[in-house]
Amino acid sequence: MSNPGVILLASKTNIGPNIVRLDIEDNIGESIHIHINNFRFDFTIDQFISFSKAINKSQVNLQRFKGLDFHNFDSFFLYRLSPFMNDIDSISYKNIKLKDLKCAQKIKLPFFSYWVFKAIGDSHHYNFLTNKSSKFSSYEQDNYIKVNNIQRINNVKNYLKKNKNYEPLVIYEGSNIIRDGLHRAAILQNLNDENYIVKCLVVKFRRNIKIKAFINNILNLFIKITNKFKNIIK
Amino acid sequence: MRDIHHKDVIFDFFSRLNEANLDYVLLRNSNNELPSKLKKNKDIDLWVALNNRERFIKFLKKNNFRKIRHPLRKYIRLYGVSKFEMFINKFGLIVDINYEICVKSLSKLHLVPIDEHYQRNILKNFKKIYFSNVPIKHIGDNEYVVLLIARQIFDKEAFSAWSISEINKLSSICNSKIVYQYLKLIFFSFTDELLYLINKKRYKIINQKYIEFKKY
Known about the structure:
The complex is a heterodimer of chains A (234) and B (216). With 234 residues, chain A is of the alpha+beta class. Chain A folds into two domains: 6-61; 91-205, no CATH class. Chain A is built from six helices and ten strands; from the N terminus they run ββββααβββααββαβα. Chain A has helices at 45-61, 75-81, 124-129, 149-162, 182-191, 210-233, and strands spanning 6-15, 19-27, 31-36, 39-43, 88-97, 102-108, 113-119, 169-172, 177-178, 197-205. The radius of gyration of chain A is 19 Å and the shape is globular. Chain B is of the alpha+beta class and 216 residues long. Chain B has two domains: 1-102 and 122-139, Beta Polymerase, domain 2 (2-Layer Sandwich), CATH 3.30.460.40; 141-216, no CATH class. Chain B has a five-stranded mixed sheet, covered by helices on one side. A three-stranded mixed sheet of chain B has the order 4-8-7. In chain B, β9 (127-131) and β10 form a beta hairpin. The A-B interface holds A 1-8, 27-31, 44-45, 145-146, 231, 234 and B 73-74, 78-79, 103-107, 112-115, 150, 154, 185-191, 207-208, 210-211, 213-216.
């Protein structure tokens, strides 16, 4: 039986020496599938949530993370961070003025894209909130299925208007670039000003992850190019 | 230049198709556009038995159709779905051939076939309709309403006014038990809620409810 209502929740290849394929799919109305190599595990929604909580609990209990609950991280960021989680040495908190932070913005060209670093006030997110530019609506970013950029930023804005407590922004030690929380930062700057102090979670890595990140990016680029060629051949 | 096909072109195509004795089923006739209101940029959506493919293509070529690029060619066809094919003749009549009934997956650029049980019944349960005196093999009502619902949810992502009126019309003549069985093969545990929402005519919220569904 084929279920067209499949949402791919996560997909990873070549994790360590033994896992070639790891896919997690939500087959709406049917079950959650976890594919590991040639095996498939079926979960009900409740079973999958229990499983996910158990994984999180074991993560929290690891001394290295000092009780850090990854469940509070944005799912997309956690997903991107996953290849480097084993390299995390420690985490700490720091209060920083918004004007002292930078954000990464994707520049998309026909065949490739690259990142530039800008002040929060120059981001598409902030410019949308201040009606300076409408480029944000088509800006490429990860969203939950059937949620567009505008719905997403408005949801975060409504949350921040009602709640003083927000998840800290995430930065890496030795850098002022926001790794997670640009929506929050842009909204807080819009609601306050650039001198507003925000709480940041600082991730310190055991070693320099730049080489690992570079190899990871090269691999992703290779997969993208291969897929493009496959489509052209079709 | 007329932007609508002359009905004789349509009559001629289906008459020749019938003469060739090929297994085909007309999958839709939106707003009764066939035989006399088919716009030139619209196509005729046909299901053709895969084992008839070679004969069917021979028939099209003999009748001066040439192959053109299919708009869904970039989609990844899951579960070994056969390629869709599209042909055009000198009058600009476009024929879209499906060897298996598919819908777009929620994942980007994927096409997923509807369950085999449904596929097998497409030819078995066709109904005969007539364009003037030309008999046409049209998809059966039960299979049609299921296709209509699936395509609105997966392909169109919303129920159009036309599809709603078609579903309303068909709901009184379809066999609810058969339709339920088909829907269950596509929507699984969501089927009961889907039928409840259709019965209550709450079409606008169906897609959202489907994405948010968690009772499984």
